[in-house]
Amino acid sequence: MLLVDPFPVVLFCVMSSVRQRRNPNETADLTSIQELIDDIDCNCHSGNILIKFAEIVRQCTYIGMADDVFALLQHKTHLYLANVVNLSSMLALNFHYQCFYSKELMYQQVLQRFAHFNAIQLSDPAPLPELIVLALKEEDLDPESSENDDLKEKIAEMNTELLKQKAEMLEEYFCIKIDTHGNLSRLPVILDQYTPVMDHVPEFVLCLGNDVDWEEEKSCFQSIAAALGNFYALHPPLMPNPSGEGLVNYKKRKAFTNTENEGEPSNSTGDDVEMEDEIDHELVSEAEAAWAQREWSIQHVLFPAMRLFLKPPTSMATNGTFVQVATLEKLYKIFERC
Predict the structure, then answer these.
(1) Best CA proximity match to 110, nearest among 237, 2, 235, 232
(2) pTM, full prediction
(3) Tens digits of per-residue pLDDT, 284-298?
(4) What is the DSSP string of 166-211?
(5) What is the C-alpha radius of gyration for the chain, rounded to an integer number of angstroms?
(6) What is the pLDDT of residues 33-59, one digit of tens each?
(7) What is the DSSP letter of 230?
(8) What is the pLDDT of residue 288?
(9) CB-based contact 313:107 (threshold 8 Å)
(10) What's the Cα-to-Cα distance from 65 to each of 80, 303, 312, rounded to whole Å?
(11) CA distances from 273 to 40, 147, 254, 256 (A)
């Protein structure tokens, strides 16, 4: 009887997992995925400008957030502002999909980890029809109106059936688990130690139903990866930043009172409110926690992953994703004149 030492087997499995994450050739079993990864490589390694820009990305040091969307970075003696959300490259196939800075990183990681994801298990399965209706209401110019509720429910029903038909492929390749009852119960881990903001799940599910090209393989995989990139990107929290002038958003509100009949509420609409001086400290604490978590993720997850994995596309070198704002040598000359 041949006995096998389990330690080398475990070690081999760990090494294989690491290689799969770092070597796209070992994860891209399908030609279409390898072509998408090759497209990223070709777009990254072209010209001296891109080589220099890639060096900046690999070697930059995180300084801090300059405001809600701009991070301050240093590379050697140069300071840069990096827009972690809004400045974009374009992914084009049968449609244009705007892929912002953190979206580009997430998109590339989806392709790199294709079919080799760890899973995020949702504590409560989320019903797709409810998610899709919620997303449609958020897109509606008048979300309180019930005029198109029947149409929204019909769209939700059709998209739910479509995603149930594609459930096996979504689970096998992207670790997106949709059960036979049309509930979303599992999502992929795209970056270790990072969980997407679940407030964007309805938008993501609607995007899977509406924006994915299910007819052509390469286009299908690209559009799903782009949808995941958009969902997992580091969007600002839905709650306004409570620091500085943003604190005004957390003052308590009350309805105007009728000045003619003191003590009686007015018959005016709900828009007639006045601000109290008292701050809703419970909401402020919740908002501060959300914004602090986002900044922690930017510093400790996004930028380390960027330095390791991001292959900056051509457009990022010229479209303002990284903007040089200061050079220390020039600052020294200014100080010498003072």
Answers:
(1) 232
(2) 0.78
(3) 999 999 999 999 999
(4) THHHHHHHH--EE-TTSEEEEEE-SSTT----GGGHHHHHHHHHHT
(5) 24
(6) 999 999 998 887 555 666 677 888 889
(7) H
(8) 95
(9) no
(10) 11, 12, 21
(11) 52, 27, 6, 6
